């Protein structure tokens, strides 16, 4: 059986099964799943989410469900995770859905959309709205299940060496900003480039690029941009970057019901935990940046820039929806969900945060 | 053994254990835990959190860990949950920590504090700051473990029949607002009363009270306040109401490691899920209230009211910290955590929500 070859099975239970035809003993079969993650070894926060998930699954199953994590240095294919899990070379993956946009355009919608939902709103859409069903509609033809895999919170708009006061200031600006957000920025005059993370600091320092978008304080701090750029812009392009667990469908079908549920809950908890850990790590990092670099100014993009980006985003979404029924359905679902969720969040979270900021 | 009597044990595994001295088979022992919740049967959102937790635990353990939920109509002691779990009459409870303030004053700090942390910030304090350790320090002498049990999100400031324009307007105002928030309100002139939920609507309609604080749109909608009050005030007093799972320490010690971990993760996920479900249900309810009652105005308390409440809150906290080292330690930990977390949330979530509101 091809499917069986996906697993390493332990023989422990075999003698018992032979002795006693009890379903309790049958359930003791052991499974080791192999997971490929896009990140390098010991990548902070993102890589902790996979380890957290694996630890919970192993402990809850009393060792019956083990997950062996291969980082990018091992499998050498950070952006091959989709294909490897699809083909069954790996049972699971940990990555980001929008990386597969070139292969399957509608995977774009399950990470985070410019001007879109925040983490809480997006989890609500996934778990209590239509999000999970729509995501599964996109992944099913590729023999995979997809689950939320951890949230970074609102990504910052990036580090700029010069202040942005107008649309003109963006004209020809060289900026590291990949993906769909880069396309939006390109529409308003920016020259988006993609540069490997290890070269970003030097590129910004030497003026090869004028600005760089990375993640948020916790991960940005480690790359050192605060030492060479004075302007830190607030976020717009990825308000709730959700990572993703992929599970090969055959692997999933092979697991007994209790281990499926253990895996499902471990992934769900690890994802939520990462959202909360991101708040913690970002708070710590931002406190340290503020203290060591009091010169750094947090800025919002000027209104005209914001408006131009919103328009560019709408134009690109319309293009995506054209001739693709599923894309149109997903975009509509997200926009409708966001409308109601945000109306409530505005009278709850936003009002509270603003009132509190005023009395400080 | 007294401890053993807490459990109903299934005999299924006994023959196997006799046959084979295998730890795998030993682990098949079954446990049924009894949980008392403060809420009535089918209480929305709060009661769904316990059912969600029990379902996850049962499915992940393949039926080895069952949780039998007794609602308040059964055990007749909604505010006796602390004592019943402490004494081992129940293995678990689902309630809110601040209900035990009269018994153990420092339980106050683990639900939500006026002008305090939001749900994400508070989860970060619990899980990545000192929150869990401090909470355990409070509950350990009572032979219990305490875990986060689900968040309502920011509670609204309440329904008022008349607009509040000054501190004077609060003078002698009769309002349903219980607990510590009621004490804060009392300091600024309000006459706080506690009225059973079933009588609130009539009390507000007949003018027995002038205002009522309940939870947020989802739960408020069911009580119908939107039909008889025009002013809905934004929140300040419970920015992140966290419910609580209690577990009797002897019960916990009796569980094998894998079931402890299954229970821990099921509680953690159910708590997070409730935070997300609250966003969903509040968004739906607020959309419906807005549509059916377009006359309703969302208001912030005037600055002078806000400032007076902040001062009253600080005064009450100082009193709580006086002569109680643990209280002082908890208050300091929360204030310090909030400072850094909010500084980050202000450049991330608040900036984003404000920018988005401006372009609408």
From TrEMBL, chains A, B:
Protein keywords: Signal
Signal peptide: 1-27
Keyword ATP-binding: no
Name assigned to this protein: TRAP transporter substrate-binding protein
Keyword field contains Signal: yes
Source organism: Marinobacter lacisalsi
Pfam families to which the protein is assigned, alphabetical: DctP
Domain of life per record: Bacteria
InterPro entries: DctP_fam, SBP_TakP-like, TRAP_DctP_sf
């Amino acid at each position: 059986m091809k499917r069986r070859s996906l697993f390493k099975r332990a023989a422990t239970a075999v003698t018992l099964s032979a002795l006693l035809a009890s379903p309790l003993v049958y359930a003791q079969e052991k499974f080791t799943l192999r997971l490929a993650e896009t990140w390098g070894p010991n990548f902070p926060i993102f890589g902790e989410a996979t380890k957290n998930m694996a630890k919970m699954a192993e402990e809850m199953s009393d060792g019956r469900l083990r997950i062996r994590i291969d980082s990018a240095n091992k499998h050498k294919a950070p952006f091959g995770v989709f294909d490897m899990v699809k083909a069954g070379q790996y049972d699971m993956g940990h990555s980001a859905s929008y990386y597969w946009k070139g292969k399957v355009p509608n995977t774009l919608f399950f990470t985070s959309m410019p001007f879109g939902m925040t983490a809480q709103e997006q989890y609500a859409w996934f778990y209590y709205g239509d999000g999970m069903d729509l995501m599964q509609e996109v992944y099913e033809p590729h023999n995979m299940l997809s689950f939320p895999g951890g949230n970074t919170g609102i990504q910052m708009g990036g580090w700029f060496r010069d202040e942005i006061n107008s649309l003109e200031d963006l004209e020809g600006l060289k900026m590291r900003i990949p993906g769909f957000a880069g396309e939006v920025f390109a529409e308003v005059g920016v020259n988006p480039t993609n540069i490997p993370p290890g070269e970003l600091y030097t590129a910004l320092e030497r003026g090869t690029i004028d600005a760089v978008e990375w993640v948020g304080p916790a991960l940005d701090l480690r790359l050192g941009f605060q030492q060479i750029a004075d302007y830190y812009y607030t976020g717009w392009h990825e308000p709730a970057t959700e990572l993703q667990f992929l599970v090969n469908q055959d692997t999933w079908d092979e697991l007994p019901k209790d281990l499926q549920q253990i895996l499902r809950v471990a992934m769900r908890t690890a994802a939520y935990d990462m959202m909360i850990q991101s708040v913690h790590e970002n708070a710590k990092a931002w406190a340290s940046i503020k203290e060591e670099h009091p010169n750094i100014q947090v800025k919002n993009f000027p209104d005209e820039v914001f408006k131009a980006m919103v328009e560019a985003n709408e134009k690109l979404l319309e293009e995506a929806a054209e001739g693709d029924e599923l894309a149109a359905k997903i975009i509509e679902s997200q926009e409708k969900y966001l409308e109601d969720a945000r109306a409530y969040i505005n009278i709850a979270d936003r009002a509270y945060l603003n009132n509190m900021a005023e009395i400080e």
